[in-house]
Amino acid sequence: MNRLVYDSNFLVALIDDKDKWNQKSVRIHERIKKRGDKVIYLDCVANEVISVLGRRCEEKGQSKEFGTILNQFKTLIPGEWITWIYPGIKRIYPDILNLIAASDGKLNFHDALIALYVRGKRIKYIVSFDDDFDQVKWLKRIKEETDLP
């Protein structure tokens, strides 16, 4: 069994059936479930997913549907499944900034936080459509079913 972290864009695509990566994310997610891999859901990812989904609803004039979408999110990721890493930011804040600087700003704050968290927990895989993670040497990005270990 492998341990994997889901990134925000993967989860948004999984929930939003109109997202360009929806079908790919559904296939990858189903395969991961079938294999029995351990998925780690991070608080910073949950924060970003909820914000992006809310913004999409607002931009499409569908704010009234946000409650339904939020319920989909809560069904997919119950609160007790979330790993809370925000409290550790103070301790690794300088490392986060150093990693962002080392990427010439390509990694954003949350991406650097995720990368440092997985390194500390010896997690090797992130499921993401964000190629900025490809420059993180200790992390293997899964973007296709064929990338699964």
pLDDT below 50 for ≥5 consecutive residues: which ranges? none
Tally of individual helices:
6
Tell the overall outline: globular
In sequence order, what are the helices and strands, one letter per element? EHHEHHEHHEE
CATH architecture: 3-Layer(aba) Sandwich
Number of strands: 5
Largest sheet: 5 strands, parallel
Keywords summarizing the entry:
149 residues, alpha/beta, Rossmann fold, five-stranded parallel sheet, 6 helices, 5 strands, 11% strand
Please describe what this structure looks like.
The protein contains six helices and five strands. Helix content is 51%, strand content 11%. It has one domain (3-84, 122-147): 3-Layer(aba) Sandwich (Rossmann fold). The longest helix has 17 residues, at 43-59. Strands 3-2-1-4-5 form a five-stranded parallel β-sheet. It has 149 residues and is α/β, with parallel strands linked by helices. Helix 1 (8-15) packs across helix 2, helix 3 runs antiparallel to helix 4 (66-76) and helix 5 (89-102) packs across helix 6.
Task: Describe what is shown at a glance.
This protein is an alpha/beta fold. It is built from six helices and five strands, in the order E-H-H-E-H-H-E-H-H-E-E.
Topology diagram in text:
Elements: E1 3-6, H1 8-15, H2 22-35, E2 38-42, H3 43-59, H4 66-76, E3 82-83, H5 89-102, H6 109-120, E4 125-127, E5 140-142
Parallel strand pairs: 1-2, 1-4, 2-3, 4-5
